[in-house]
Amino acid sequence: MKPAETGGHLEPLPGQLLLPGMPDPDVDPSVGQAALPGLDDLRAPGPAGDLELAAVAAELTALDEDGSRMAAAIRGALDMLLDGQHTGRYRWEQLHKTEKTHAGTLVEIALARSLRLADGTALDYTIAGADVDCKFSHRLGGWMIPPEADGQLMLLVQASDEDGSWSAGLLRAAAENLSPVGNRDGKRALNDRGRAAVCWLHHRAALGENALLRLPERDVAAIFAPVSGQQRVNELFRRAQRMRVSRTVVATVAMQDDYMKRVRDGGGARDQLRAEGIVIFGDYAGDQLLASALDLPRPGPGEFVSVRLARRPGRPDGGGPDAYARSVRLDGADWRLASPADPVDPAPALPR
């Protein structure tokens, strides 16, 4: 059985683990050619055997096999920290040092709520009867282990909006896995052996995308330039076409309590951009089908995808570049994705 490929990275299939001693799939592509071991390898005698770690890994996998709940919790914690609706921030670098320090607490709480993890006796969680401490780092491998966690199980979580990825793995904080010298608080980093010993539950999986980080800086500057929140949202959907745009990004750009009103029909961006040929698909089932029919990213819950449409001039007769273009029928006409050369036609209203 081979790992699945996600977003350019080799990912374990649901229920599989990247175990200690295995090559990093981002470093050694040959990982994709070999079968991945399972939990039995952790139960085996010898250095790799750790029954308690195996039980915790199995419990977390059972709670969230595909990692979707963990991913949503991490995404929510980062968004709460940035607080874009009130600050306009969308990058990790825009946070104050004290806020970055607080990120670990928010991620810890978000995971506990999402997975319904019980409080630990001395550490953060009780999972499969074991005390587990949760540590978050913006940089892969950058965790700092406190003295009270020495010898204990660690749930190591990492996420980066810039990379668009997140990871979560388990490690026994044994002395041989930690640097010999700590900082002034006694916290120690992982050494090379410790980084190699992490048992990955999810490794560089896709993190919910922040469209503002994928746009050129000149486009982001143009989006934030208008004084009006409505005009900023309009500019967002003009410039972030054919990309998933989350509610959080809309809130960050609008910086208003009623930010969703800036998108909706009845005076929002959907109405105001129609004259420019731009439609905004949302998470309605019908919108999702239309987006898929046009080979666009399918908007998920709380997401939008904007695009400019052009009329398709009659049924194709087998000739010309339009013959094989995907199209959808709206308001009695066929519409396809517009090219820069297409004239601007007012866009059709989406069915509701």
Characterise this structure:
With 352 residues, the protein is α+β, with helices and mostly antiparallel strands. The protein folds into two domains: 4-206, DNA mismatch repair MutH/Restriction endonuclease, type II (ECO RV Endonuclease, Chain A); 211-337, Arc Repressor Mutant, subunit A, CATH 1.10.10.10. Helix content is 30%, strand content 20%. It has twelve helices and 15 strands. It has helices spanning 40-43, 51-63, 68-82, 84-87, 97-115, 192-197, 211-214, 217-224, 229-239, 247-254, 269-272, 285-293, and strands at residues 4-6, 9-11, 118-119, 125-127, 130-137, 144-145, 153-160, 165-172, 188-189, 199-206, 245-246, 278-281, 303-311, 328-330, 333-337. The chain has a six-stranded mixed beta sheet with strand order 3-4-5-7-8-10. The two termini are 44 Å apart. Residues 1-16, 21-39, 43-47 and 315-319 have low confidence and may be disordered.
Percent of sequence in beta strands = 15-25%
Largest β-sheet summary: 6 strands, mixed
Shape, per Cα inertia axes: elongated
How many domains? The number is 2
Distance between the termini: 44 Å
The CATH superfamily of the largest domain is DNA mismatch repair MutH/Restriction endonuclease, type II
Write the topology of this structure.
Blueprint: E1 4-6, E2 9-11, H1 40-43, H2 51-63, H3 68-82, H4 84-87, H5 97-115, E3 118-119, E4 125-127, E5 130-137, E6 144-145, E7 153-160, E8 165-172, E9 188-189, H6 192-197, E10 199-206, H7 211-214, H8 217-224, H9 229-239, E11 245-246, H10 247-254, H11 269-272, E12 278-281, H12 285-293, E13 303-311, E14 328-330, E15 333-337
Parallel strand pairs: 5-7
Antiparallel strand pairs: 1-2, 3-4, 4-5, 6-9, 7-8, 8-10, 11-13, 12-13, 13-15, 14-15
